[in-house]
């Protein structure tokens, strides 16, 4: 649980990096066929995650703390999968909450999220699998390229491998 909601809304300098379309398109082949309803728990207006998922036939429930729907307190009645790009300064709290909800999820996080003893133990306990794109995503439209690699940290998808290097539409199931 976040102690101070004002701090949660203000957050870190790199927490408002908006997900580019190509970052969502590359994970579409990895969404299980049984998934019909997806919850995007950090969806801003005009979210590319929501737009791409809806364009591909999914029902999307969107929420955001600024709309009074705090991921740490709110949960939709029905959904099959969480897909989100959470604030990176709160990645541990988002992961912990997702594990508590006990639903499959896909979170776009810096690849350095693999680092650390505590997270390593948590990932092993919950059998986290990672989709590692072949390129970095550009989060800021005015700039060419990005200075860090992000990957999709997943749980509950039942992929064949724990580390999945992706760059094509080939499905690793």
Automatic annotation (TrEMBL):
Transmembrane segments: none annotated. It comes from the Bacteria. This is tRNA (Adenine-N(6)-)-methyltransferase.
